[in-house]
Amino acid sequence: MISLQVELTTVELESLRSEIADLEEKEAHLKAQLEHLDELLRSARLAGYLFIRTRWTALPGEPPIDDADVDDWLPRFVVLHGSCIFFYLMSTDLSPQDSTLLSDIVEVGPLPSFIREDEHTRYSFYILTRHGLRYECSSISEIQVGSWLAALRTDCKLESNTTALKDLS
């Protein structure tokens, strides 16, 4: 049996210790993200990825903007939890990028479906806040859009949730 002995310099040893500490810190951060996501999904009423774009309501006398050719739909992980709707950049993010109180939502409804460059039909809906902020949301799943419309209408006490499914037909 051959015995091999490796000797490390102090600098090499400290470098390895530093690398191990960095990896342990990264592991702790990833565990925190996973635990956060697990808790979020367990307690959320509805959660999932939607394509989102935001618009502001035109001011009185302001001409309408035709932005049909603008492709600014961004994927966001959206969570309906408690009295808020949260918008995360990714499902693993610890903090939302944006949020809106359900009590600030004055209207939700379907938008016309459309086809993107990937040739998939996108079903869409909007969420309008009393501040004039309009979230436009889309998905390739008609069922997912119907679920969001129904849940938002129920939780915001806007209309009966059976209307949401009829709107998509």
UniProtKB/TrEMBL annotation:
Residue stretches in coiled coil: 6-43
What Gene3D superfamilies does the annotation carry?
Answer: Pleckstrin-homology domain (PH domain)/Phosphotyrosine-binding domain (PTB) (2.30.29.30)
What superkingdom heads the lineage? Eukaryota
The record's section on CDD domains has: PH
Q: Which PROSITE patterns does the entry mention?
A: PH_DOMAIN
Q: Which residues form the PH domain?
A: 43-157
- Kindly state which keywords UniProt assigns to this record, in alphabetical order: Coiled coil
Query: What's the protein here called?
Result: PH domain-containing protein
